[in-house]
Specification:
The complex is a heterodimer of chains A (about 425) and B (about 300). Chain A is an alpha/beta fold and about 425 residues long. Chain A has two domains: about 30-70 and about 320-410, no CATH class; about 85-315, no CATH class. Helix content of chain A is about 50%, strand content about 15%. Chain A has helices spanning about 10-30, 35-55, 65-70, 75-80, 105-115, 135-145, 205-215, 215-225, 245-250, 255-260, 300-310, 320-345, 345-375, 380-410, and strands at about 90-95, 120-125, 125, 150-155, 165, 175-180, 180, 190, 195-200, 200-205, 230, 240-245, 265, 280, 295, 315, 375-380. The longest helix of chain A is centred in the C-terminal third of the chain and has 30 residues, at about 345-375. Chain B has three domains: about 20-90, no CATH class; about 140-225, Immunoglobulin-like (Sandwich), CATH 2.60.40; about 230-295. Chain B is built from six helices and 19 strands. The chains are: A alpha/beta (about 425), B alpha+beta (about 300). Strand 7 of chain A pairs antiparallel with strand 9 of chain B.
Chain lengths: ~425, ~300
Amino acid sequence: MQSPPKPRTGKNRQSILKRAYKSFYHFYLRYLFKRDTILATISVFLFIWLLSLIPLNTGILNPFKTALKDLDFNDISYSVLNKNKNTPIDSRIVIVNIGNADRAGLAMMIEQLKAAEPKVIGLDVTFNSAKDPHTDSLLASTIANSSNLVVVSRLDWKNKKTPEDVGYFGRFEKYHGYANLIGEDGGTIRSFSPYEKSDSIVYSSFPVAVAELADSKAVEKLRKRKREYEIINYSRNTDQYVIIEGTDVLENNVAASLLKDKIVLMGYINHDPFNIEDKHFTPLNSRFAGKSTPDMNGILIHANIISMVLDGTYIRNIPSGIFWIITILIAWLHVALFMRYYIEEHIWFHLVAKVAQIFFAILSVYIGILVFDWFHLRFDTKISLIVIILAIDIIYFYEALAVWLHTKFGFQTSFHSKSH
Amino acid sequence: MKHIHIFLLLTFCSMVANAQKANSFLVYSVKGNVSIVENNKGTKAQIGKLLTDNSTITVGANSLVSIICNEASLFSITKPGTYSMTQFKDSCLANKSSITSNYLKFIWNQLTTPKGAPEKNRKSYMNNVGAVSRTNISIWIDSRLDTINYYSGDFPISWKCYSDADEFTFDIYEEAENGKPVFQKTVKKTSVPFADFSSKLKKNKPYFWQVNVKNEDPERRKVVYIWDKASFEKLLAQIRSAHNGTETAAEENFRIGFLLESARFYSEAYGYYQKAAQLNPELELYKKTLEAFKKDYAIGQ
């Protein structure tokens, strides 16, 4: 007759946990503290550091770097996961699509808009030279008589002394701000520089100059952040701003109440995907990697920046110290796992390594997206992915080095010449 | 030995034959008034017409002709004038580099591209301008430079460019329209110093200058006039004596500078503005005027 099973006591549970820990320690944890693991992990970062010392740009020789050059995994949260889908329409901003209006048309639009008493009007159009004396005089007079009009300028760093080019009507303007955005030529626009300084003159960017007139307190917050650049929080796309046609403004089809005390941005918007005039790549692009067409007009990028400044919803970068600690930790955990299979079950090494890489890639991107979405914190998971990819090759190199050191100098290592 | 001689002779003959190979030009597109002269016979330019080195082409005002040379390189002529096809030999040079050399060039360019991310080196990555333009002229010349009087000094004729053009042709003509340039210079900067051409121009004679950028109609020609010593000194004496009251040396220099600038003697005015600012460095007006003058006329850039 069998005796009934004994009820589990606290002591039993403790011993199960202890045994589980012991077997886990034997299986994996003991490798964490092996000298080879720590030295191999250091070798990975040493290798990266040595690579960075080469004065040549080795990006072309590195397919990972080339492929990942303009990729930010956080873009997935915009383009695939519809991060901003539920963001309400920003009723503080009204965008006027100027279409193909010429200088006379623009002058008339500004006059019409002024009559509705908006807080500020931002004109996202550059005028590089004289065109027609009649229309030029008309627009010059309108610009000169508009006390709350901000016109875009352009920064050209080739001209180091006076980089800001205010254009043909610059001398008539009361306010202007540069429309330059940060990004590679034809690359994704993820950040902008709020202020630039040259020869003790401070230049404001166009969206900041517009926001300054609308809400100086919000801009004060931005100023206090003292950031050389800000990551743009793309909270809204074309459908989440009120966009009215310039022709409707001219024909007086727009109620003045819609514009009163609002930020009115005048710019060019074209919904035709094949029209790329003043269109840029943004993280909202439906194809977050690879070749595609630009997706957002400049005026909408400025509108997103203004929304971000007014709401104070800035995106922060994870402090570099914490970033490197996390990256080293991830590399260490992976190297320990790879070492275990490399030394004890080499037949499974490559399979486990590939599975671990895929698993980590999916997990890290997910964590990165969550952190980005919840805390507006950007963590570049690309680097840790590169580190893990490199780790496998470094282990091979480290093994050869360790065996050589062992033979020559009696260096203590878990590797031996016939490990696989 | 005999074989070597024959081989060298054949190589030489083949090189000579290659060097003398005539170019063939195919008219690819025509806009406006373009005519061709061949064997002293003038005809209207037609698409598909084959031209040789001996042909002459005449391009009228606001006209354009695109030509393909040796089935390899395409170029366009937009500038009005008559041209012999031999002038365009340079445009026939096709890129004969091998795949290997092109690949090595590509690798070298990539390796020597500066490292860095947009955010870490933002000034190099601020070329994306989020604005639309309402201007279709890429060259802009300050209207004050429509007539320039010059006697001496270091002063640049400058312009601004709003397109990606990286090369400009600066021409000086004797005529306000048409004619051949008496001075021509291709520059990468947006200015040409007077020192480059002033000695080549006759004094007390109006000349006309123009800046050209590829595939664009140039602005109307502007006037440049080199004064001789006697005439300039006479004018300067008049300016000096125009003021009867007392004035400091700085004030006098500033006044002369201002009047010379008004009379479009920019190079000379610059010298007087500099003197005024040196003599009275405390006065903000002199300093600011000098700074604005330098900025407006791109001096020292």
